[in-house]
Specification:
The complex is a heterodimer of chains A (269) and B (263). Chain A is an all-alpha fold and 269 residues long. Chain A is built from 10 helices and 2 strands, in the order H-E-E-H-H-H-H-H-H-H-H-H. Chain A has a two-stranded antiparallel sheet with strand order 1-2. Chain A starts with a helix and ends with a helix. With 263 residues, chain B is of the alpha/beta class. In chain B, 35% of the residues lie in helices and 25% in strands. The N and C termini of chain B lie far apart (41 Å). At the A-B interface, helix 4, helix 9 and helix 10 of A face helix 1, helix 3, helix 4, strand 7 and helix 8 of B.
Chain lengths: 269, 263
């Protein structure tokens, strides 16, 4: 089975690469511009790359602290029964289809953001990041609870026996021991944020432009995934436009691959 | 693989209207896909057709693309087929059948009409599209940023207004603040804003999405266009039957009931 999945991954990578190659040779450094305008042969992917990284960072800034605190609370202060119950609810949350988050994003979150910042539209990079943070929270939380739960009992007991307060046990014994697992959890949820399409596509605004100034996340943007979702249907198979979009897909696969590689390395037993 | 999946998801999400009428066992349903402007008329016509029809949206460009690759029997388009599109699919012959006409209108948030925007100069629209006018107060409106909503590049509606306003159907729009796909997504965005400008087919206006006249040299101008259904040379008999149905009396009624004019 392992070989089958490996073969599938290799096949996907190869297909993407073969499809993208003509575009890569023809467009070349042209990909590193900020203008995407297929009718004039311009395929700059920087705005999409920026968007993907930006929404990922926003999602992490929110989901990481919240998730970590919640994980500590669940795994250290609640009874095993409650922990099991919470786990199943979390898994349920992780199973909600992303389109549902997207619809909630369009109908409510983007409206709240627009009102809150007094803007014409709430379809912003920030909104996409907010939605994503909620979406990756269950993944991060359940993996973190697992990582904290895997810390051997004697670590806590020794720390307590040394007369440390509870917060010191957590900060100085528990988290350092579970560090690798926690970082792995973070990276795996990052991977999910990076690949998310539907929810992001609905709330990000689909503008292929870098914000001005660059850190202004209160502007509309585009991610690699939302660009693919919006334009793939219109690109004729085999055309340069198609090849350029496949190249975006290739970038996405490479980024996800790197994230997963680091996560696997950190999570190794 | 991933991409086919995305396209599929998009179709399901944004617009899928599946009309299955009758249930003649064994026959493949007629599949038709494309422009969200043509979609309401096709859906209505599918209801009065005596075989199953699957109607999907996705935009003119996506519809043509699916027809060219044989995923659908017919494509709905609210614009002409581009030379580049024909070139990319040169193995096949395509025939456009006009099913109706509509007018692309400039639409604004209802709040703008209440505060004095009653017409728009075509030159001002050009300046809004290229970003040199960015506040409604510059053209006699309230002191609010103009929120210009552009449509997807493959959209028939976009080609129509860009050609009429800038002279280039594929013109860039540096002044755009948001890009939307289907018509209902644009309606939602305009409704949620109090300073939005967009372009839609005249049948898609409502109490919150209000059409304003476009003026050129003192006269009102109209961006009229044909709504077409495109077939490929190897159209199946079932598809041909549905095309005839669309072009017949019941089809014309459906086009009129959707707010367009029938030929």
């Amino acid at each position: 089975m392992a070989w089958v999945s490996l073969a599938i991954i290799a096949l996907i990578g190869l297909t993407l690469f073969v499809q993208a190659w003509p575009a890569i040779t023809e467009i070349g450094v042209g990909f590193l511009s900020t203008d995407w305008h297929p009718p004039s042969g311009e395929y700059g992917l920087l705005p999409m790359l920026y968007g993907s990284v930006a929404v990922m960072v926003i999602a992490m800034i929110i989901a990481l602290p919240v998730g970590l605190l919640a994980a500590i609370n669940i795994s250290e202060t609640r009874s095993p029964r409650l922990r099991a119950g919470l786990r199943s609810i979390l898994e349920l949350l992780a199973g909600i289809p992303s389109i549902v988050y997207g619809l909630i994003g369009v109908a409510y979150v983007s409206v709240w953001v627009a009102k809150g910042f007094d803007l014409q539209s709430g379809r912003l990079i920030l909104t996409a990041g907010l939605i994503l943070s909620v979406m990756i929270l269950p993944t991060f939380l359940s993996l973190s609870v697992e990582a904290l739960g895997a810390v051997p009992r004697h670590v806590r007991e020794n720390a307590r026996a040394l007369g440390l307060y509870r917060h010191e046990v957590i900060l100085q014994a528990l988290i350092p021991t579970a560090r690798k697992g926690l970082v792995g959890a973070g990276l795996l949820s990052l991977g999910r944020a990076l690949g998310e399409t539907m929810a992001v596509m609905l709330v990000i605004g689909s503008i292929d432009r870098l914000p001005d100034p660059l850190w202004n996340v209160l502007s509309s943007g585009q991610t690699l995934t939302s660009k693919l979702g919006r334009e793939m249907g219109e690109a004729a198979y085999g055309s340069l436009h198609f090849g350029a979009l496949i190249t975006l897909g290739l970038c996405l696969v490479i980024m996800t691959f790197i994230l997963n590689l680091i996560a696997t390395w950190l999570l190794r037993a | 693989m991933a991409c086919a999946c995305l396209t599929l998801m998009r179709c399901i999400l944004l617009c899928a209207v599946i009309v299955l009428t009758g249930c003649s066992a064994g026959t493949e349903p007629v599949r038709i896909s494309g422009s969200t402007t043509v979609l309401p008329a096709t859906s209505l016509a599918a209801e009065s057709f005596d075989a199953p029809v699957i109607v999907n949206a996705g935009g003119s460009g996506a519809g043509f693309n699916q027809l060219a690759t044989g995923q659908v029997d017919l494509a709905m388009m609210s614009r002409d087929i581009k030379p580049l599109e024909r070139e990319n699919a040169s193995k096949h012959d395509f025939t456009s059948h006009v099913v109706g006409q509509d007018i692309v209108v400039a639409v604004v948030s209802s709040e703008l009409v209440d505060s004095g925007i009653s017409a728009l100069e075509v030159s001002d629209l050009g300046a809004i599209i290229d970003g040199s006018i960015s506040n409604w107060s510059q053209i006699g409106g309230p002191d609010r940023e103009i929120f210009f909503i552009d449509k997807d590049a493959g959209s028939g509606t976009r080609q129509t207004y860009m050609l009429a306003i800038t002279g280039d159907a594929d013109a860039r729009a540096p002044g755009a603040d948001l890009v939307v796909g289907p018509n209902n997504e644009e309606q939602t965005a305009i409704t949620q804003s109090d300073a939005a400008l967009g372009f839609l087919s005249n049948a898609w206006t409502n109490a919150d999405v209000v059409a304003v006249p476009v003026i050129d040299g003192g006269d009102e101008i109209f961006f009229a266009r044909d709504l077409v259904v495109v077939s490929r040379e190897d159209l199946r008999p079932e598809g041909k039957a549905f095309l005839d149905h669309l072009l017949g009396d019941e089809g014309r009624e459906a086009v009129k009931a959707s707010g367009y004019s029938a030929p």
